[in-house]
TrEMBL record:
Organism annotation: Ectopseudomonas khazarica
UniProt keyword Transcription present: yes
Annotated signal sequence range: none
Record keywords: DNA-binding, Transcription, Transcription regulation
Protein name: LysR family transcriptional regulator
Family listed: Belongs to the LysR transcriptional regulatory family.
Length: 301
């Protein structure tokens, strides 16, 4: 019985929350994956997964084993590469997550450059606007925009994203171009929240080194950056967004800048990973590549 093989299978089932998807990922029959997980449960004498018709999730013991197994398997991958003829070759699978807009506009179009350097690597690229849990969800590293307040994560600061206020020409033709903060009383803000029911931050701006917020009316609230951008392009109101995502719209005239003297604070960008986790060379290589790639778009940290 190959114990490492059992652990790798259990790791994939836990990360994908599915026996079928894990089997497809590993190139194995589903029955083999199920049997290997049962073998591992017999080996450690504990139930590792809750199985339902809709979802598979780890038990408390399973989560503990997953966290330890993930570290062990990463170290084994390092050992396997240590004495290979090409000491610099990287192999294995990377699992990373980042905001949708950054993935779509900056990373995905250039990802072939990284993969061309490391042909034995595979990457799972997660794109979401929610804050994922790197450890519990099995991500090797996460690109996070905003202040990192989680002490369980190691953060590598990459820089800041400058912010810009935007609206569509059609919206401004109807409501007028605001010149002062007082003019916003007659305008609509497209509200962005991480979860519906949360309170919108309103229109944010910096003055004398302090952050201020102005309550604004607005009939549309979104929780996704694509919807946020789309609502603005559709003339539904004003948004405050990172300049990097709006630059092409501004250049081509689909959006117009406004109130440049009253912009929100730059948003910090960090690469984060769990404390105490061994970082395989492939993860370090990707983090270094991503830092270099984003240096062109970020203000200095």
């Amino acid at each position: 019985m190959n114990k490492l093989e059992l652990l790798r299978t259990f790791q994939r089932v836990t990360e994908l929350s599915s026996f079928t998807q894990a089997a497809d990922s590993l190139g194995l029959p589903r029955s083999t994956v199920s049997e290997q997980v049962r073998d591992l449960e017999r080996l450690v004498d504990a139930r590792l997964l809750h199985r339902t018709t809709r979802r598979v999730r780890p038990t408390q013991d399973g989560q503990m084993l997953y966290e330890r197994a993930r570290e062990l398997l990463a170290q084994m991958d390092e050992l396997e590469n240590l004495f290979r003829q090409d000491a610099h070759a990287l192999s294995g699978r990377l699992r990373v997550d980042m905001p949708t807009a950054i993935a779509r506009r900056l990373v995905a179009p250039r990802l072939d450059e990284f993969l061309a350097r490391h042909p034995a690597l595979e990457i799972e690229l997660g794109c979401s606007d929610r804050r994922v849990d790197p450890l519990r969800e099995g991500f090797d590293c996460v690109l996070r925009v905003g202040v990192n307040e989680d002490d369980s994560l190691v953060a590598r600061p990459l820089g800041h994203l400058s912010m810009v206020n935007c609206a569509s020409p059609a919206y401004l033709a109807t409501h007028g171009m605001p010149e002062q903060l007082d003019d916003l009383a007659g305008h609509s803000l497209i509200h962005y929240v991480t979860a519906f029911g949360a309170r919108s931050d309103g229109f944010e701006f910096q003055r004398d080194g302090k952050l201020h917020s102005l309550v604004m009316a607005g009939r549309v609230t979104v929780n996704n950056i694509d919807a946020y951008e789309g609502a603005c392009l559709g003339g539904l109101g004003i948004i405050q967004a990172p300049l990097v995502g709006m630059r092409v719209h501004l250049r081509e005239g689909r959006l117009l800048r406004l109130l440049d003297d009253w912009v929100a604070a730059p948003m910090p960008v960090n690469l984060v990973h769990p404390h105490g986790c061994h970082l395989p060379r492939r993860v370090r290589a990707f983090m270094n590549w991503l830092e270099q790639l984003l240096a062109e778009e970020l203000d200095a940290a």
